[in-house]
């Protein structure tokens, strides 16, 4: 378990992790955040005025911080919500807003690094992973999905998930996942796909990562309410024809994704952000300003 | 003059039967439009409604060969249905590409133009010397598929529905309703109705009062269910209690199409086919067509071709959007420079402060050193 070596030292201090959640409204983004943190982190959307429903509000970027305890490990989790994405008639502007936010966090680190005396309590606000909620159309990726993932993957680990996956029957879900991965490959979108090296890593890591890779994109169902099923209290959605359980791995991939994000792959996501994505940004930015100076 | 009753009956009451025979022989003609983003179950719904494959499901093999053009197309599928020797010519108009792109501005123009063009074409044909075989593709009913977000109508939905409602019988439908729990569905329906009322969107209504009480009650329950929640499926599945129904089989149960507790499919089918198809057709011909004709005749003489004014507003809009983009870019650049300047100033201040801190530290060390050397030299004396 190579990625857990640093854990023992940090267990007492705890980890810091920043996650951004992007997707059109009505895909269960807010519910997912609340289900992930097991608390009412993001307030429920206030019912909008009916006569203002035609007004297009732009995208907003809202970070929320919670303290979680995962098996005795403290995690300070910051979730960045992006309400308003994809809701307008013309959504070209959304991409620039999100990209701007991500790059501003990198800029802050860059300028902090250049100081003579660095602030030891400087807060690292870089976003380590982006969960992109795909609309469950049942066909394939839409133009806005492809555009977003393409534009943001050079700056952040993009993990595609399917929102409201209880729209699909098991067969439809498998077909949709297959087509989405085909689209991602066709358009050469570099998503975070739980990388492993079959020669270097041990068998357990290889197995763990290939399993997670085969589940991409993760099927998400979110629910904050608890209902009674056979005498147990579970988090689930009650339909007239049955009950969907959030924590049941047969029904959706929520539990597996949560474990990957907050336990097994937290360190890996942070390392890739720092060692690879941030370094690329730094190189690009510094060479750009060097070019500007030499002009 | 009060109507005089004929004695034993001379056969006037047989007129409806004669009419029935003529209509039965002629057959019917019905044009239905389905409008909404892709992936909302439009094709499946049509096939479920008419219990036959009117439209084949999308083929995915050619999706990578798509052209870069981001257009909304109008696709017409024609079918002839027969039931108990009564024929009906059905046309289904689909709108692939609507709402599917990043920028959907003006994506409703091809749809609106199509509806208006049908009225226009019928009007022109009426003015011809030979009016026998009119090809009538006027849209009798438009089903607008709403994405089951659970929140409210999107700005795009509102823009399109406003324009559709004044031209055609608009029936809003909540697609893929098996995504929502009954409480969520109820809240969603209520909110949609509030928005429709607040935004003045005209939806299809029909007279509720009828001769017999059963019909009146049925009409009222149909109207109360608007917007209709639907589930579409052409597959036969087995429920937990052994029945074979049309439905969707999930790991946690079977959602049935024809179960009124699961969705409003039956009510919608009742409305579209069994009870109000004729009303849809006649209200299109009488109300919507007349509105169009009236508006056109106010400005045009009989026989004059329609002036295409569509392109001009588009140009003006494009110009406007280009100008807006230009000023927006300039503003962004100015902001960027300003924030860059501020960053540089802030950094300069920070570095200066650090330098000062170092300076004072050095001074302190120097003072210490001096004190020590002073102390040493005084010791030596």
Automatic annotation (TrEMBL), chain A:
Keywords: GTP-binding, Nucleotide-binding. CDD domains: CDC_Septin. This is Septin-type G domain-containing protein. GO terms for cellular component: cell cortex; septin cytoskeleton. Gene3D superfamilies: P-loop containing nucleotide triphosphate hydrolases (3.40.50.300). The keyword Nucleotide-binding applies. PANTHER family: SEPTIN. The keyword Nucleotide-binding applies. GO terms for molecular function: GTP binding. Residues 13-288 form the Septin-type G domain. InterPro entries: G_SEPTIN_dom, P-loop_NTPase, Septin.
Automatic annotation (TrEMBL), chain B:
Keywords: Coiled coil, GTP-binding, Nucleotide-binding. Transmembrane segments: none annotated. The keyword Kinase does not apply. One of its GO terms (cellular component) is septin cytoskeleton. The keyword Membrane does not apply. GO terms for molecular function: GTP binding. Residues 316-368 form a coiled coil. Pfam families: Septin. Residues 26-299 form the Septin-type G domain. It comes from the Eukaryota. CDD domains: CDC_Septin. Belongs to the TRAFAC class TrmE-Era-EngA-EngB-Septin-like GTPase superfamily. Septin GTPase family. This is Septin-type G domain-containing protein. It comes from Dissophora globulifera.
